[in-house]
Amino acid sequence: MKRILVLEDGTVFHGEGFGSAIDQEGEVVFNTGMTGYQEILSDPSYCGQIVTLTYPLIGNYGVNRQDFESISPAVHGLIVNEACSLPSHYQSLGTLDELLKAKNIPGLMGIDTRMLTRLIRKHGTLKGKIASAEADTAAIVEELKSAPLKTNHVQSVSTKTPYHLPNTGRRVVVVDYGAKSGILRELSQRSCDVVVVPYNTTAEEILLLNPDGILLSNGPGDPKDVPEALHMITSILEEEIPLFGICLGHQLFALAMGANTEKLKFGHRGSNHPVKDLQTGKITMTAQNHGYTVSPETLAGTELRLTHTAVNDGTVEGLGHKVKPAFSVQYHPEASPGPMDANPLFEKFMNMMETTKEEGKEICLNA
Ligand SMILES: NC(=O)CC[C@H](N)C(=O)O
């Protein structure tokens, strides 16, 4: 079935539809990962976005049970050059086309994804719509140009009610702004007793859960659309509870501390983004998926320390609090997909919880 991608600048790409045949709008972004399409399309941070994959052959190892980052993918569309219809992998249970149909996500193939990516790199991300080839493209362009980009998606992807993943170790409350399951997996693997709570849970409600640590998850959209988080974060820090922010969680941590965020031209999405640790000089290869960033000039005057920067463009990649047990990264230590280089950050969080616990004990004993 012939389908098209219409961009707000008037460009029309002609391709072949696969997956769901619904028309769908979104912010068109690109991801440069060579593998990991199942994790990418099920990452809730892509809610409201149409993702184009620059690697030309997608779907060749099929779809499996292990690689979902959420049960209900929230991505608005997937654009590829070639979608493989005959996958081969021992864990594969079906094709990309079948998955997209089942989850009601429109796909478009036969697109020159490198041309599309170059266009986005030149102009910045653009709004676009996947539609039928017979659609009135001029009317779609007008529609795209007239409506502002919707960025407030956290409420739709966050859990509606708290849930518990019981275990024997430290209790971690994960504030779910659209958390990837990889984050929960990393905590569970370290025996953490995880409680996942909705995005608007208050500090008082969190403290009632007696947490040893708080993890602010990744999530979609503009961090400024989640003002509920800011008071909660400052209150948690007053209690000296260790805090770890990932991606959207990192941006919210920065906003709560008085820094600012801004939108990048086309963001960072891929599995090989080099990040420099400013203390050791060490470079790690990281998985990234973000369109916003912390504005570095706004860190002065806050209690935050810049700990990591992006090698490619110098943007802020990591922050630490100067006195409180709190740190955050713009990239994904849980990877999924991507390299595991940044995985030791979970160890750092575990150590922070142990140290704070020990110090707390001393205070109690000395009292
Ligand atoms: N993966 C994320 O948490 C993304 C954070 C935010 N939505 C951004 O695009 O910058």
Automatic annotation (TrEMBL):
Catalytic activity: hydrogencarbonate + L-glutamine + 2 ATP + H2O = carbamoyl phosphate + L-glutamate + 2 ADP + phosphate + 2 H(+); L-glutamine + H2O = L-glutamate + NH4(+)
Chain sites annotated for binding L-glutamine: 45, 219, 221, 248, 251, 289, 291-292
Domain named Carbamoyl-phosphate synthase small subunit N-terminal: residues: 1-131
Keyword entries, A-Z: Amino-acid biosynthesis, Arginine biosynthesis, ATP-binding, Glutamine amidotransferase, Ligase, Nucleotide-binding, Pyrimidine biosynthesis
Pathway in which the depicted protein is active: Pyrimidine metabolism; UMP biosynthesis via de novo pathway; (S)-dihydroorotate from bicarbonate: step 1/3; Amino-acid biosynthesis; L-arginine biosynthesis; carbamoyl phosphate from bicarbonate: step 1/1
Stored SMART domains: CPSase_sm_chain (SM01097)
Primary enzyme class: ligase
Region (CPSase): 1-170
Keyword Nucleotide-binding: yes
UniProt EC number: 6.3.5.5
Residues forming the catalytic site: 247, 332, 334
Gene Ontology process terms (BP): 'de novo' pyrimidine nucleobase biosynthetic process; 'de novo' UMP biosynthetic process; glutamine metabolic process; L-arginine biosynthetic process
Molecular-function annotations in GO: ATP binding; carbamoyl-phosphate synthase (glutamine-hydrolyzing) activity
Self-association state and partner proteins as the record states: Composed of two chains; the small (or glutamine) chain promotes the hydrolysis of glutamine to ammonia, which is used by the large (or ammonia) chain to synthesize carbamoyl phosphate. Tetramer of heterodimers (alpha,beta)4.
HAMAP family, alphabetized: CPSase_S_chain (MF_01209)
Function: Small subunit of the glutamine-dependent carbamoyl phosphate synthetase (CPSase). CPSase catalyzes the formation of carbamoyl phosphate from the ammonia moiety of glutamine, carbonate, and phosphate donated by ATP, constituting the first step of 2 biosynthetic pathways, one leading to arginine and/or urea and the other to pyrimidine nucleotides. The small subunit (glutamine amidotransferase) binds and cleaves glutamine to supply the large subunit with the substrate ammonia.
Family: Belongs to the CarA family.
The protein's name: Carbamoyl phosphate synthase small chain
